[in-house]
Design brief:
CATH topology of the largest domain: Pectate Lyase C-like
CATH architecture of the largest domain: 3 Solenoid
Shape: elongated
Helix content: 10-25%
CATH class of the largest domain: Mainly Beta
Order of helices and strands: H
Number of strands: 0
Number of helices: 1
Largest sheet: none
Radius of gyration: 21 Å
Distance between the termini: 66 Å
């Protein structure tokens, strides 16, 4: 193959790659989220929210089911009644966030910062909270059945009143 033919082939491949990248960037799931201060009730399932800066955002009743929020900044955000089932929040920053009545069943919350967050009445069944920072968080009336709290920091956490069927941790055990 001559040098001229190889150069033309490389140029064609490069142009195809650029066109493909531009086409993919037009899809809603590839668009960065931009909603401060209000995303209340929005369906954000197709958005790429990894590392998103959503500090103080109003995400009340937002549909975030299965969304990848890994490393996102959601400090002081209002996620009251948000749908986050099966979402990936590993390493996310949710200190001081309002997650009352939020559905986080089956969510990946490993190493997440929930210090001072209000999770009163939230559903955390089957959630993975391994290594999570829950210091000072409000977990009263929270559903914790089968939640993994291994290594979670829970100093000053307000826990639900244990009943035989709640699967609730006891103070100081982190389990």
């Amino acid at each position: 193959m001559s040098k001229r033919v190889r150069m033309a082939a490389l140029l064609a491949i490069s142009l195809l790659a650029i066109v493909a990248a531009l086409s993919l960037a037009q899809h809603p799931w590839a668009q960065p989220v931009s909603c401060p201060p209000h995303c209340q009730g929005n369906d954000l399932r197709r958005r790429d929210l990894r590392q998103a800066d959503l500090k103080g955002a109003d995400l009340r009743e937002a549909i975030l089911t299965g969304v990848d929020l890994e490393g996102a900044h959601l400090e002081q955000a209002n996620l009251n009644r948000a749908q986050l089932q099966g979402s990936k929040l590993q390493g996310a920053h949710l200190s001081g966030a309002d997650l009352q009545q939020a559905n986080l069943a089956g969510a990946d919350l490993r190493e997440v910062d929930l210090s001072g967050a209000n999770l009163n009445g939230a559903d955390l069944r089957d959630a993975n909270l391994t290594g999570a920072d829950l210091r000072g968080a409000d977990l009263r009336q929270t559903k914790l059945g089968l939640a993994n709290l291994t290594g979670a920091q829970m100093d000053g956490t307000l826990l639900p009143n244990p009943t035989p069927d709640c699967g609730c941790p006891t103070a100081g055990t982190g389990q």
